[in-house]
Amino acid sequence: MSGNLIIRNASELVTVSGFEAKRGPAMSDLTIIPDGSVVIEQGIITRVGPTADVLSGLDQARFTIVDAGGKAVLPGFVDAHTHFVFGGYRAEEFSFRLRGMSYMEIMQGGGGIASTVEATRGATEEELVVSGRRRLDRMLTFGVTTVEGKSGYGLDLETEIKQLRVMKKLDGCHHVDIVPTFLGAHTVPTDYKGDPGAYIDYIDREVLPEIGRLRLAEFCDVFCEAGVFDLAQSRRLLECARSFGLGVKLHADELTRLGGAELAADLAAVSADHLLHASEDGIARMAAQGVIAVLLPATAFSLKEPYAAARSMIDHGCAVALATDFNPGSCFTESIPLIFALATLYMGMTPEEALTACTLNGAAALGRAKSVGSLDVGKQGDAVILEFPSHLFIPYHIGVNCVEKVIKRGEVVFDAATEPPEKGG
Predict the structure, then answer these.
(1) Which domain holds residue 54?
(2) Residues 42 and 84 occupy one common structural domain
(3) Segment holding 267, helix H or strand E
(4) pTM (2 decimals)?
């Protein structure tokens, strides 16, 4: 596997060029090159531009050649918020919601996250590796080349570490790169019911030191929400996590306007996610501090909640990313096309903004903007080839996957025309 590959003659080469998150109007700048080509050597992009210029004087015999005539070429998608390592499923809860029960009502009745915690605690590490690999395979078919994975279905030291170990194993054997996030404060476990502060004490005292010692996570997240963890508890946890070298993120203002966006700004968090009920002041403060707004439209769709105010956020100068929030409860989907459709049809985003949000800004939300998320010289050779001539077909072909090939580090790792994705790296 040399990682030497040329993608040539693309009808449009969409580079989304940049090495940091794009904010506000800059999110519309995709840098589209008609009849474009990309050269990847040993897994790294070395040339990008019009085909005639890129291929001039190049010894093509050293390369695998992929002809993209009549097709659009884009950076690999970055799914910056998922919970893909878990045991069990919650299909019955979906039907409960269809009958009128709310997400919080199900959670307070012992279902929701607690149900998945029980199943994940009971699953072996190997079982979680097998199911996680299968989910990554499916993500790859949608063009996802980098994904964030959150723990949070253990709520104890042993199972949280088990989830993070599974991600590390999968990162070592699968084509999709995995960025691990510790989400031990996903909800209050039953043995701390009624005392979330004591549970935060437990995480700070016993769990975070071990997470830091083992270097199993890059970020720490918290479900900052009414009835879960309040602002003071969330701040205390994230400040402790930062002392162990973890970047900080928040599930913020998802179900109520608690002030999570403001807290994210105060902490200069890498990202605040969900934000369905974020205040205008909170969004303005996030923009001023460079906090990335990671929006999860499929979750709002699934829960029948109002969508996050993406248009307002962009107009305030925020960097907006989009992600699936793939999880067994509130959003059981890996579908990137669904995310594009919801963002463009219901959240006021243009196709160009949505593409930036699913590539470069998603990479920035994971601290990866300098290495992935765009087709720039020096970055990892991760690309997607569509079956259609333009990126506009992603939202236009509503909810249908139009990814034909996926390239990872200069190797074709998925080809819809010939075979299913390989089972791992």
Answers:
(1) 5-75+374-415
(2) no
(3) helix 260-267
(4) 0.95
CA distance linking residue 321 with residue 80, whole number of Å: 8
Q: Which two three-digit tokens encode residue 364?
A: 């920035």
The domain that contains 397 carries what CATH number? 2.30.40.10
| Number of domains the chain is built from | 2
Q: Does a structural domain hold residue 274?
A: yes
Same domain for 194 and 270, yes or no, is yes
> Which H helix or E strand runs over 247?
strand 247-252
Whether the Cβ atoms of residue 12 and residue 391 lie closer than 8 Å to each other: yes
In a domain, 422, yes or no: no
**Rounded Cα–Cα distance for residues 337 and 355 (Å):** 11
> For 219-251, how does the pLDDT look when each residue is reduced to its tens digit (9 = 90+)?
999 999 999 999 999 999 999 999 999 999 999
23 contacts 319 by C-beta, under 8 angstroms: yes
**Distance of alpha carbon 374 from alpha carbon 75, whole angstroms:** 5
CA distance 175 to 173: 7
The answer to whether the beta carbons of residues 283 and 261 sit under 8 Å apart is: yes
8-state DSSP, 229: B
- Tokens of residue 359, six digits: 């590539």
Contacts of 172 (CB under 8 A, 6+ apart): 425
**How far apart are alpha carbons 269 and 248 in whole angstroms?**
5
Taking only the tens place, the pLDDT of each residue in 125-181 is 999 999 999 999 999 999 999 999 999 999 999 999 999 999 999 999 999 999 999
Q: Which residue has the tokens 């707004």?
A: 293
